[in-house]
Amino acid sequence: MSGLRLPRTLRLDPSDTFVFADAAEPGEWAVTGSFLFLDADPDTLTGKARAAFRSGFVGVRSLGFSTLVVVSEASAAERAAAVEDLARHILERFGAPDLAAARGAAEEEIAVSASLCHLPVGSVVALHRTAEGGEIRENFRTLHQRAPGADPLHARAFHFIETDEDAAEEEADLVGLLRDAAPGR
């Protein structure tokens, strides 16, 4: 690889599909997407639009939102494709005067996103966006996996142990338990 890094949308669970009106597909190249809110009054946003403003990265192919991105290696061809995807949206949906202007804006957005990727590949990044004094502010944080045993209060609720024993397994008769618990018994 070329050493080029870009953020990709990351979906750890289906929550983005509930939180945002349009969720990005997992694995899309991403930008911060604050340009989507330049004409909005953040104080009037509610529900899913407010969630998108506060914490949504934007997938360049779908313009859907993602809560998290992951730092990923990208080839020059993948970067160029991301620029073209975003430029097409900027031209068609946001009224750029021509494709050259749209490409310029897309290049800037991709460059800003690439600047977030000075972290190791695989790092997960979250965004918190606010409006202060009429300006949009973006704050980023990196989420780190805890080392095993580092925080015993936040250990896994379940873990599986493999055994070689041939002992009989416990069985439960759930239907019988329900029948016995029925009223009048």
What is the string of helix and strand elements? Answer: EHEHEEEHHEEH
Total of DSSP H or I helical runs spanning 4+ residues:
5
**How are the strands of the biggest sheet laid out side by side?**
1-5-6-7
Poorly predicted spans: none
How many distinct folded domains?
A: 1
InterPro entries: DUF6505
Give your account of this protein's structure.
30% of the residues lie in helices and 20% in strands. The protein is of the alpha+beta class. The protein has a four-stranded antiparallel beta sheet with strand order 1-5-6-7. Strands 2-3-4 form a three-stranded antiparallel beta sheet. Strand 3 and strand 4 (65-66) form a beta hairpin. Helix 3 crosses helix 4 (99-115). Pfam families: DUF6505 (PF20115).
Q: What's the layout of helices and strands?
A:
Elements: E1 5-10, H1 15-19, E2 30-31, H2 47-55, E3 57-59, E4 65-66, E5 68-73, H3 76-92, H4 99-115, E6 124-132, E7 135-143, H5 174-181
Antiparallel strand pairs: 1-5, 2-3, 3-4, 5-6, 6-7
Helix pairs in contact: 3-4
